[in-house]
Amino acid sequence: MSDFLPYGRQSVNDDDIAAVAEVLRGDWLTTGPAVTRFEADLAEHTGGTPAVAVTSGTAALHVAYAAAGIGPGDEVVTTPLTFVATAATAALHGAKVVFADVEPDTGNLDPAAAHAAVTDRTKVLAAVDYAGHPAELDQLRKVADSVGALLLEDAAHSLGSSWRGRPVGSLADLTTFSFFATKNLTTAEGGAVVSPSAELVERARAFRNHGLVRDRARQRYPDEGGWHQEVHAFGLNYRLPDVLCALGSSQLRRLWAFKQRRAEIHARYDEGLRDVPGVLTPVCRAEADPMWHLYPLRVLDGRRRALFDHLRANGIGVQVNYIPAYWHPVFEDLGYRRGLCPNAEAYYAQELSLPLFADLSDADVDRVIDTVRSFFGV
């Protein structure tokens, strides 16, 4: 058997290593200038929208919901076809999570289903850019506005994507990113919250740093001494250190090269698999210019598990994205039941993510294609 081929992998070069080493030789390992620089560099890819760097994509969601001020009695409407963190971080703030179904072809939140799910208690409408394909953000904006809710875009998959010519990060009230090792760029672990609202950015910055207030003009007891700091609202330590921010800034310089290579791989899969009976290749809306994070092949006729096992047996790493969030026992124990979102459940039953990362060679892609085709006897 050939060497095992992972379904996702980071791309780190000598420039990345040098950027990290420079920080390690300097005075600041965390809360220093590399953080500010990374946030500014990131904003160049989000239409200038200010960024707050945090320790993970999950932290970004937790911080974003905190900035939105959600709590007990509030509702967050979101998609179940996502990693559990999109919903879990809202639940951890005490909100009720309301799941709305997805479009059967893109796997993204269906605006009509979202419209049916929102109420006057909805405080955040949270869409996910599944596989890197932006959600229908213009229609979802109308749904959010109809009930006075904030629109949150979980863009863990889609930094570098655009919708109707506007970059992801400039379209929602709050956008969250992930920089995990398999994402479109990496800081090892890491994430960010971006927002055009100065108030939301300030709240996000406060929450990621314990809620500390150091500005004397805002302190309740400003005359305590030069060392004084106060907490007015609880926060957590979600600070992304300089050493990882330096890696992020270096990676951002290759973002468009990553996007181009991912598009080439995606197109090669399309060409090699579109005539295979028993599978559906991914769709792309005319309004979307995706940064493809996943290649979500749809396997028909109940054969997804068999193909998964076949590829793994042949040394090809594949994954399933995602188990519907409310299928997890933690939500089941809260009363959520299977059958809630039929399109999402049907999509999950067919989905298989093929290897997709910037350093994947054409020969590797062809190996995957040939192994899929051999399974179907074509």
UniProtKB/TrEMBL annotation:
GO terms for molecular function: pyridoxal phosphate binding; transaminase activity. The modification N6-(pyridoxal phosphate)lysine is found at K183. GO terms for biological process: polysaccharide biosynthetic process. It comes from the Bacteria. Its cofactor is pyridoxal 5'-phosphate. Keywords: Pyridoxal phosphate. InterPro entries: DegT/StrS_aminotransferase, PyrdxlP-dep_Trfase, PyrdxlP-dep_Trfase_major, PyrdxlP-dep_Trfase_small. The active site is at K183. Belongs to the DegT/DnrJ/EryC1 family. This is Predicted PLP-dependent enzyme possibly involved in cell wall biogenesis. It comes from Saccharomonospora viridis (strain ATCC 15386 / DSM 43017 / JCM 3036 / CCUG 5913 / NBRC 12207 / NCIMB 9602 / P101) (Thermoactinomyces viridis). The lineage of its organism: Bacteria, Bacillati, Actinomycetota, Actinomycetes, Pseudonocardiales.
